[in-house]
Specification:
The chain is α+β, with helices and mostly antiparallel strands and 156 residues long. The protein is built from four helices and six strands, in the order H-E-E-E-E-H-E-E-H-H. It has a six-stranded antiparallel sheet with strand order 1-2-3-4-6-5.
Length: 156
């Protein structure tokens, strides 16, 4: 089964609507506990890879990019799966997870595990990101996020 079909089947089985762009990227959204954000899924059948990107819904102003960059770096230090990224030129903050299934067969469970890790991690860290955007120190914001209880696996 092509990888794109496994991805589509996962979203279909969850009644999670996705749209396909002209360039083949799947787009959807996720409603977190604090805000909603767009999610893009890039499927590379030829390389047997899928990349999931949760994008913060608004670009970060120039004057806050340094603090947000520090927040992203501090968040990444303790993460087992995925990473936060900041586009210093455009201000986009995003969380990226990926899966490489070369040599194996992708199934809905694999897609689910990576997708759910993506949106739940983004959901966990959004309050800290919002705090930094409101003027909080990045180290304090990370401490607050990481001391809070983790959200349930409620993305299914």
């Amino acid at each position: 089964m092509p990888l794109i079909d496994a991805v589509r089947e996962y979203f279909s089985s969850e009644d999670w609507p996705v749209m396909e762009t002209e360039d083949g990227v799947l787009e959807t959204a996720f409603e977190g506990t604090t805000t909603a954000w767009p999610v893009r899924i890039h499927v590379f059948d030829e390389d047997a890879r899928v990349v999931f990107i949760s994008a913060f819904p608004a670009p970060v102003d120039d004057d806050l990019r340094s603090a947000v960059g520090e927040f992203c770096h501090r968040a990444n230090f303790g993460l087992a799966i995925g990473n936060f990224e900041l586009d210093y030129d455009g201000g986009e903050v995003r969380f990226r997870t990926s899966i490489d299934v070369e040599g194996s067969t992708a199934d809905q469970a694999m897609v689910r595990n990576v997708m759910v890790a993506n949106v739940l991690t983004m959901d966990r860290y959004v309050p800290g990101l919002l705090a930094v955007l409101a003027g909080s120190d990045p180290a304090d914001a990370i401490e607050d996020v990481e001391e809070a209880p983790e959200p349930d696996d409620s993305a299914d």
